[in-house]
Amino acid sequence: MKIRDMLEKGEPTVSFEIFPPKSSYSLETVFDTLTELKGLHPDFISVTYGAGGTAQSNTVEIASRIKKDFGIESIAHLTGCTSTKEGMKRTLASIKDSGIENILALRGDIPQEKLADKNWKPEYRYASELIDDIKAAGDFSIGAACYPEGHVDSINKVDDLKNLKKKMDHGADFMITQLFYDNDLFYQFKEKLDLVGIEQPVIAGILPVLNIKQVKRIQEISGCNLPPKFLRILERYEHDPASLQEAGIAYAVDQIIDLLSSGVDGVHIYTMNKPDATRRIMENISCVRKAVCRKEPQR
């Protein structure tokens, strides 16, 4: 089923992200994780493309098996920055042959070695160019990334919104946000989308914080705002890993309940391949999830 069709029903989706292992030898660990996640009844599961566009074949294989073996709709991430047009054509054909109907189109992070090469020129400079080729390859439901606090590479937030509008105008059906920890910033972002005429659904990306190292990494990559409530949690439990994990899960639950209660189009949980934390979040939001949906999640 196409994600655009799910979203047209008017009920908030709850979905997960997983990532492929670095080695194909450990693929079975991902399927063990998926076995646990299946019992949580997500509407769909996304599979990342790997750092710098690596693990391409694993992404397609895992996304295909999520749908065929686990009976859950899947969405494969595709990054364009390190891909060639010809290589992307083959990848899209493989995705289509695998029965995958949904693709998240991303420019991707450019590897340092490419940035250092003055002769290197990407064949896909923007995600909108990748979206054009995805649309030409078949009837996929296409998602795009969006950034409530602005993309780190953008000149400013106005420029970032222009780039997002371009992606949507080129044919993206919906958006999934980068992680954020301040829901007010998300709501302000939604108001800005209305002002520039972006009407497609926005799925909120939530990453539960489970350790201090993760927080530092998040700040390095995204530079996202950490609100006072969040900072108080870090300060109190910085040297107590078990309590920090508990507090991180509770914070994510509070975020999701607020989003669902406010009519969000969907929530996308970045699981980091950790089903236990995801299970606890789902248990704690189950009542609200049922309340805002007209029917039970599919089993």
TrEMBL record:
Pathway where this protein functions: Amino-acid biosynthesis; L-methionine biosynthesis via de novo pathway; One-carbon metabolism; tetrahydrofolate interconversion
Organism: Trichococcus patagoniensis
Protein family membership: Belongs to the methylenetetrahydrofolate reductase family.
Protein name in the entry: Methylenetetrahydrofolate reductase
Catalytic activity field: (6S)-5-methyl-5,6,7,8-tetrahydrofolate + NAD(+) = (6R)-5,10-methylene-5,6,7,8-tetrahydrofolate + NADH + H(+)
CDD domains hit by this protein: MTHFR
Superkingdom per UniProt: Bacteria
Alphabetic keyword roster: Amino-acid biosynthesis, FAD, Flavoprotein, Methionine biosynthesis, NAD, Oxidoreductase
Keyword Acetylation: no
Keyword Cytoplasm: no
Cofactor: FAD
Molecular function via GO: FAD binding; methylenetetrahydrofolate reductase (NADH) activity
Protein EC: 1.5.1.54
Gene Ontology terms: biological process: methionine biosynthetic process; tetrahydrofolate interconversion
GO cellular component terms listed in the entry, alphabetical order: cytosol
